[in-house]
User: Which sequence fits this backbone?
């Protein structure tokens, strides 16, 4: 069964294309990866904490709901911005949590979430450092992220 699954998975990755002469060619396609966006861990709080400890970084938590328009705007606009992606990927372990599925309700209760989106910065153990609610544009989220780094540096 495992061999059959691997075989099928391999051929799913083979995507036909045509060259200029009209001949079909098969080539390996990489998944669509947006390299300039914030890279999020999805729904795995323990992994985020583990990585934060290993890399000595804070955790950025995006707590959202799938039906929430400001949440979707964050995902499609702000989190896709190159400056935002570079800054967050370099300075934080980023996790995105759907507050209504899996570990989401538990995490939302832990952070006292009562509005979406809720954006939380925590230390590697998961203790909140700074949080905000609602949509933020590119400039505002970068100021917010810098504020948490400044707060951390002032405590040293």
Assistant:
């Amino acid at each position: 069964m495992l061999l059959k699954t691997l075989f099928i998975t391999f051929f799913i990755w083979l995507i036909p294309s045509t060259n200029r002469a009209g001949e079909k060619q098969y080539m390996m396609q990489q998944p669509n990866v947006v390299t300039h966006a914030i890279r999020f861990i999805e729904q795995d709080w323990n992994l985020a904490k583990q990585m934060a400890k290993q890399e000595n970084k804070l955790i950025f938590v995006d707590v959202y709901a799938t039906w929430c328009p400001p949440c979707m705007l964050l995902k499609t606009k702000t989190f896709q911005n190159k400056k935002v992606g570079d800054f967050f990927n370099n300075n934080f372990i980023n996790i995105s949590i759907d507050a209504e599925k899996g570990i989401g309700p538990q995490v939302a209760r832990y952070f006292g979430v009562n509005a979406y989106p809720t954006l939380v910065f925590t230390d590697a153990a998961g203790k909140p450092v700074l949080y905000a609610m609602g949509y933020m544009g590119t400039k505002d989220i970068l100021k917010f992220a810098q504020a948490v780094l400044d707060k951390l540096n002032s405590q040293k």
In short: The chain has six helices and seven strands. The mean pLDDT is 81.
